[in-house]
Design a protein that fits this description.
- The protein has 120 residues and is mainly alpha-helical.
- The chain has one domain (26-116): Orthogonal Bundle (Cytochrome Bc1 Complex, Chain D, domain 2), CATH 1.10.760.
- The protein has four helices and no strands.
- It has helices at 2-37, 74-82, 84-88, 106-116.
- It is elongated.
- The structure holds heme C.
- Heme C binds next to α2 and α4.
Length: 120
């Protein structure tokens, strides 16, 4: 009985620790994504996009104000950043095809998407 209880305790603790670790790496990814979003030599997304509920030092207006993105499927967000032309079947856009043209790596786009997922 005591062994079973100890085992349960260990399981509970390890479950808690692994959930916390996941939450941590998630937060780190969001932070990295936000940095890429707002850094001129990286995504430079703020050059064209304002974001609902967030303030940046300066934002452009060429692109739509981003809102409600947390409701978008992750894959749709990834594809939009990777290559908005293919994602939307359009030929002309001010927005660069960040993945297709090698401006951002797969890992960087994943981080940006993690950040976009926090936009209400
Ligand atoms: C040079 C301007 C420009 C830059 C830089 C830019 N975008 Fe865009 N973005 C646009 C435009 C314009 C649209 C509207 C799509 C179109 O062209 O029809 C758009 C659309 C979007 C959409 C779809 C929004 C919606 O409500 O439909 C998302 C998401 C997005 N951009 C994310 C990003 C991210 C993330 C970055 C940076 C990695 C970025 N954009 C950089 C101009 C830009």
């Amino acid at each position: 009985m005591k062994i079973a209880r100890n085992l349960l305790m260990v399981l509970t603790i390890s479950l808690f620790v692994s959930t916390a670790a996941f939450a941590n790496s998630d937060a780190a990814l969001v932070k990295e994504g936000k940095h890429i979003f707002d850094t001129k030599k990286l995504g430079n997304c703020t050059a064209c996009h304002a974001v609902e509920g967030m303030t940046f030092n300066s934002v452009g207006t060429q692109g739509p104000k981003l809102k409600g993105l947390k409701y978008w499927p992750t894959k749709t967000l990834y594809n939009t950043v990777f290559d908005i032309y293919a994602a939307r079947g359009i030929k002309i856009s001010a927005m660069p095809a960040f993945g297709r043209d090698g401006w951002l790596s797969d890992q960087q786009i994943r981080a940006v998407v993690a950040f976009l997922k926090t936009i209400n």
